[in-house]
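sorry to bug you again but im stuck and you know this stuff better than me. theres a chain ive been looking at and ive put its sequence and its fold in token form underneath. id like you to explain what the token line says about the fold, in plain words if possible. anything you notice is useful, everything is just below.
___
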Amino acid sequence: MKHEKAVELARRWLAESERVLIGAGAGMSAAAGIDYGDTATFARLFPAFVRLGFRAQYQFIGHEGLTPAQHWGFWSTHVKHVRFGEDERPAYQTLRHLVKDKDTFVLTSNVDMLFPRNGFDEARLFTPQGDYARMQCRKACTRETWPTRPFIERCLAAMDPVTQQVTEPDALPRCPRCGGDVFMNVRLDASFLEEPYVEQARRFRQWMRDGAARRLLVIEVGAGFNTPSVVRWRMEHLVHHHPDARLIRINLTDPELPEELGERAVSLAMGASQAFELLG
């Protein structure tokens, strides 16, 4: 479908819809300036790690070659920037304006909580991959999680500004229960604690049930193939099994659509910010 016709169809579907499910992946936050491949922002935030040969934040996902002082020097700075930094992001504000009169729910793989930080209803949010604002024991010695901010504030207060390492061993985060390693409550492996998100999942299922008889519009934004089962495939599955549902896929790099959705799906092969402006 040609670009202009795809935008026109997506705009019409949005106007016709009362009920909207937003499925957002990393491309949504990238459009708002939280891009894990952004080398310029990385150089500004992490000059000491640039000197060590790193160039972007994505290189630290699963990286185990740092000392504890370096590890928490990076992650405390990163979490402060992503989760506790600037709230207002134009891409999120524009999307909120597009759906302001709709019955809307958000499902996102992002752990930055930028949706509620930009005015979306937190009671209509499901974050199955977790939230940087929660901390858990890496061994899951307890089902309890704790607020992240006190942990990282101690690290930041004890950080050498030149080396960006935490200089006081007592400031390094430890599990309050067993004294072992901790990390943010985000889905890394089987130790991930689901408890903070069980109620979110229940509300999402209830929202889907309550609107089962009404036409659903799914707006999927920036969901690629890093963790496709969380957003991308889930959105396809929901549209496939709801015969009246429609899918608008906004994706600059992976805009392809499944053939079985036929005329109930349209793809906008562009970034989120451009798509939102054209849909407005």
